[in-house]
Every structure is written in C-alpha cells, then in structure tokens.
Amino acid sequence: MIISGFDLSNSVEKSISAAMHSKRFPHAVIIEGGKAEERMALAKKIAAALVCSSGGIVPCGVCSACRKAAADSHADILLYSVEDKPKAFKVDIVREIRNKAYIVPNEADRKVFILENSHTMGNEGQNAILKILEEPPAYVSFILLCSTKSGFLPTVLSRSTVYNLGQASASEDEAMPRESIVEAARGVALAAAALDDIEIVKAAAVFEKNQKLLRAALPVIQEIFALALRIKYSAEEENDELGFVAAEIAPKLSRRALLSLIESTDTLINSIKLNANHNLTVTALCTKLRKAVTD
Ligand SMILES: [Zn+2]
To answer: How far is the CA of 283 from the centre of ligand 1 (A)?
Structure first.
C-alpha cells in the first residue's frame, strides 16, 4: 500500500503518511493549531485514506469509497461539528458517538469519527469519550480537531497522538488563548456579583482596545450566569472552571438578577454581531451589569 496525497515537505503530514504506511496509524489523534479549515482538510484526507478500498495507492481518488469521501457521503466517515463555544460538544453527542463506534463499519474496513471543535467538550464529555479511547474497537479511528489541546484532560491526551499544525490562527476567536477569555469573563462575573461599580469598570477595562476578547468573553460570561442560575435551582455541583465561578456568585445574586444578567449579555452579544461601536459596547456592558443586579 502506498499512501498518497500527503505533503511530505510538511512534517505533520509526513509523519501521518508514514504511520499509515506502516499500518500504525493511531486509533485516536488530536489535530491542533493552524486554521480550522486546515485541520478539517487534513482530517478528511486521513479519513479518505483510511476508507479507500484500492489497496494500492491510497487514497486512490477513484474508487467508490474515495468518491463518497470526497462528497462527504461515506457512511463510515462520521463528522460531528459543533460551534466553537464552551461546552458546545455536549455529553449526549459523545454518548451517541460511543454507541455508533460499537457498530461495525458499513462498507469500509474502518469507521472514522471526525470531531470538530472537540476542545469544547466539558469534563463529563471527555470522560465519556475516554471509555472508548481506552479500549476502542479495532476498526475505529477518532480524529479530534481543536484550536488547542490545552482543554483536554491528561487522561484523554495520554490516549491520543497529537499533531500540531502550528500557532492556531483564524479569522474568528480561535487564536485567543482560552485562559485569557476565562480570566476576563471570571473578573466581570465576580465584579457584577460584588455589586461594585468600580470593580465592574476595572474588570471591563481588559476589553478596551480588545474587541476580539470581548466577543470571545461575552458568551463565557453568559454561560457563568446561566450556570449560577442552574445552581440556584438544582443545587447541582459544577466541577469545572466556569462552574467554580458560578458557584461563587450564585449565593450573592437573586434568580431575577441572574436572569436579567443573562438577558443583558444576550443583548450585548447581538449588538456585537451587528458591529456596534466597540467602546460603546464596553460602556454598555458596565451599565447593563450594574442595572441587572440592582434593579
Ligand atoms: Zn480509493
């Protein structure tokens, strides 16, 4: 079998091609960094090579499997794509993937799962996928795509081979480190809960001249308020970074205040989508938070 179509001048593609050639291609790989489109293109190339039925030059590009792979219609290439936002990769999706992984492939020798934005899986989702990464059926391959592997549990990382496409870059917010986004969101949520005008203005200061950070942080701020509201209703325990912040602010705010905070962040998220003036949006963030908690 000869592996074709990979760019051998690129170290990542070269090592993927070599692993496939020696039939040592791992059951689970994480492709991080680079642009989202690059990660997806590489994943599709790997998937096509894994399902190609030619047995000679692979992927051959002409067999029925290759043609279906190119048309995104191969029954044994399962693509799961979610938005790049916290916890978008829900545990229910992971469970569905797990169930499907135990069903043998339809037509190819392999069954390939491509999970886009897999870094948005919470701990629960990661633990669910870990069960199958630990003992995958022989025919299964997982290709996890993410801007950065930093959100993965060490247990998941230890079961996967990581390929890094270089500094994550994207037109959207992917290049922004997750820690900076969470830190900014945390600051704002805590300041709002402290009912302190000055603290709110201070916390929001990180967004001045940083439109990208504000755009990335607002959904996270909203998520914290939503989690806090859930904690108030269900006394449910949260065990990730956002959950801890939510647990801290939940006792300080009424349900009504939290609902109002969720609505206010929603308004701001929408106004950013409509390209509202950035400085005015930062000011609006401060006044809206203050109003939501005091009204
Ligand atoms: Zn083929």
So the answer is: 57
Helix, strand, or coil (residue 31): strand
Sorted by where each begins, the domain ranges of the chain are: 2-164, 178-294
Whether the per-residue pLDDT at 213 is higher than 80: the answer is yes
Model confidence over 214-239: pLDDT tens digits?
999 999 999 999 999 988 888 667 67
- If DSSP codes are grouped into helix, strand and coil, which group holds residue 163? strand
Diameter of the chain by CA atoms?
71
How far does the centroid of ligand 1 lie from the alpha carbon of residue 67, in Å?
A: 7
Tell me the CA–centroid distance for residue 152 and ligand 1, in Å: 33
Residue type (1 letter), 221: I
Q: How far is the CA of 64 from the centre of ligand 1 (A)?
A: 7
Measured in Å, residue 61 CA sits from the centre of ligand 1 at 5
Q: Model confidence over 105-158: pLDDT tens digits?
A: 999 999 999 999 999 999 999 999 998 999 999 999 999 999 889 889 999 999
Give the CATH superfamily of 2-164. Answer: P-loop containing nucleotide triphosphate hydrolases (3.40.50.300)
